[in-house]
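Thread: Modeling a multi-component assembly for a lab meeting

Hi all, long-time lurker, first post. My supervisor asked me to bring a structural picture of a complex we are working on to next week's group meeting, and I have zero experience with this. I have the sequence lines for every component (584 residues in total). Could someone generate the structure of the whole assembly? Inputs are pasted exactly as I received them:
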Amino acid sequence: MSGKTLAEKIIQSHTGAGSVSAGEVVIVKVDYTFSHDAAGPLLINQVNKLKAGSMDTAKDKTIFFIDHAVPSPTKELSNDQATVRNYAMNNGMVLSDAGNGICHQVMAEDYSAPGDLIVGTDSHTCTSGGLGAFATGMGATDIAVAMKLRKTWLRVPETMKVNLTGHSPRGVFAKDLILKVLSMLGADGATYKSLEFEGSAIDELDVYGRLTLTNMAVEAGAKTGIIASDQRTRQYLKEFGREDQWKEIRADSDAIYESEITLNTSELEPQVALPSSPDNVKPISEVKDVKVNEVFIGSCTNTRIEDMRVVAKIFKDRQKAKGLKLIVTPSSQKVYIRCIKEGIVETLMNAGAIVTPAGCGVCFGALGGIPADNDVIFSSSNRNFPGRTGNPKAQTYLGSPATAAATAIRGYVADPREFL
Amino acid sequence: MSGRAWKFKDNISTDEISPGRFVGLRSNLPELAKHTLEDSREDFPLEVREGDFVVAGKNFGMGSSREQAPIIIKMCGVRAVLAQSFARIFYRNAINIGMPAIVCDTTRIDEGDVLELDLSNARVIDTTKSIELKFPRMSKTMEAILKEGGLLPYVEKYGDLLLA
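Re: Modeling a multi-component assembly
Sure thing. I ran the full set together rather than chain by chain. Output:
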């Protein structure tokens, strides 16, 4: 029998059957299921309609997040959030309320563990793959069924191995690596597949950066992105008081990959995605004279504490460009508190930033920071599709938090290496 | 039953189908449906008629997992979405709500062509051009879910989630 990829191993351990291989359709047991304020009301509606199963079997593994528009900007969203909040509270499920953080960040801090199978009503559920979990996003109806029956069906994905070799140079972060990979794969280059990241650049990357890589796997159409669990994973879990949940999990050396790509990270420079697709990527040296009106440093892709430290280093004793809007949104309350304790918030405010409560923020286009007509935004988030940030007449560029910070200082898309 | 083809380009995202700025309307689907695909084609939500078809290129529905995207397309009266390929979550969501998402060679269909969907024979008929576009059968489980009208009726039928 041939060896297994990470996706095959985790799925196999959740089928209760023997060996599974890519291409098979299987029923799997789910560990965590979650939803949030943007999908929750529809999900609760479906849960209430469905007679089969029960919501009482795994209340501690059923999580409702209020993160997409916080604090709520309209009465309609307040009503939706009340629906989600009351449902979770009245039925004894886990509630992660407004301000606590973006679902994917909080999952990675408090819940997801290596070997888990996680499904949620959000396409970036794949973020938890950075901890060695198999995590994938689905719609409200699928998750309603998964919540009540504690299982779902899926096709075991083929795996594409992404070898990230070499050593990332100064100024090149996880975000730059994944943007480059997306430009190699295209927006549908990994549809239905599992992207398994490995290589020396991954070995050297802490879990904070790994979560950035797996977060954007869906931008190539992938079902999930996943990284083996190692000592860095153990260290990360220890930081959040969960070392006991660590276990090593890696692909077999004779696993079968559908395909393989290799990127030598030593030769990379910072990368920028141009409007209006995350795979429309150029190295920063080729992005010249792009004037920017707004910079957003936030989202589930970035703004973990490591990102915030880099950003603070760049803004230290510097100011944002005059007239530019600078909005910084920590990914969770835990990150926010650390930013306050480490003086990062003060540095950001001195630089002219608005620092908002933790949540999806500008990325989702539903509250504060919606751009004006013809505005150009530079964002550390994951998507720059037309209309994504709330105004179809604005344009969005994507890059690392460091590139975003340098851009905010210059007022033009700028190379962060001159500030590092 | 026949309907007209509404052509869309490659890589239509869920942000274009159901923009995030209308998130406040997600509990008011008839209102949300008035904005279906308006960022791609302003005329679509105003002039689409019962039985029409959304006809797209590659990777239709990329991006978010929002199930409201296929729901509001269906609420506009759309019979089926035809595309060269679909993003996986959109595809799953469409079948889960009982709307056919059909992979076929849409390059042969032009704007305004009159189409018929013949699911049982796995073909789309373009009556304007008098051509027939065969499409591969979807997976057995997908086919069974669609036949019951979506995932909830499918699960209720067996009282459990089973593979077809």
